[in-house]
Amino acid sequence: MTADAAKTAPSDLAYVPFVSVENMMRLVHHVGIETFLEELASHIEADFKRWPEFDKSPRVASHVPGGVIELMPTADNALYGFKYVNGHPKNTRTGHQTVTAFGVLSEVATGYPVLLTEMTVLTALRTAATSALVARHLAPKDASVMAMIGCGAQCEFQAMAFRALCGINRLRLYDLDPKAVEKASRNLTAQGFEVTRCGSGQEAVEGAQVITTCTADKQYATILTDNMVGAGQHINAIGGDCPGKTELHRDILLRAEIFVEYPEQTRIEGEIQALDPDHPVTELWQVMRGETPGRRDAKQITLFDSVGFAIEDFSALRYVRDKVQGTSFAEPLDMLADPDDPRDLFGMLTRSAG
Q1: Is the pLDDT of residue 297 over 60?
Q2: Is 241 an annotated catalytic residue?
Q3: Catalytic residue among 47, 175, 241, 313
Q4: What superfamily in CATH does domain 137-308 come from?
């Protein structure tokens, strides 16, 4: 390397650890999927327990033809994180994913990124980890059967998390698309689950203590009707996540005790958009801190009105940063300009021409 080249070569400050999709998958297999979910859930719970420390706001959503593109930011006193994520329900018709994402974690003190990572796989894992973590507080203690209505990309992650965190190994699957049920049944049977394929949503919920609804297209706005939900069941509603997109009949909401991540966002995007703006809900951080009860009795219907919140992504970013430090699961990415003189960015540019 010549002296001039050495002057323009990136310094250590220019590099940001980058986790690709390939390396994320390698990391998950290295840790073990269920261990990964358990550890990720612990990070999420730890951050929920310090909820007041975070800067919080509803995500910034741009509703575009065919879907939505969102930015999800949050920060504590040390770190800032955001996720870029889309939701395009018709994408699978053209071979695209319904949801894709990437995220950044930065130091508050300098604003410098300390991690850039794929979050398509990671979002699926954090969504499932959050669902199962919440179910620890809200589902019946003896729950052993889960109904899965919607067998798309999130289905298997939910099943793995509920087994890892709640011990549920019996599944009842239903989807409007028989091919989706076949896919999920094949994948989950291979993971050791006891799987029953069902011909309707009504059949799927029979005998289930936990009901997970996970559909993508707001064209089908009522996945569960009131008669399908009985006393003592826990509903994990994760498909409703934007204005006009819900999965549950309003009467179910009126019978259930509703738990949410961040009310200001959930009232815009969640199941409770169908209710009065002042309808009472319980914030999950207060449950996890022991400030308010979760499930109170065996007959109570509990509902996790899940829309996904930025603090969960922050927890996932923080977890991945810790796991990849000093390993081959992250590669240095020349991402930040770093001139010898911080005030001479133009000089760095001109010297690079030689």
Answers
A1: yes
A2: yes
A3: 241
A4: NAD(P)-binding Rossmann-like Domain (3.40.50.720)
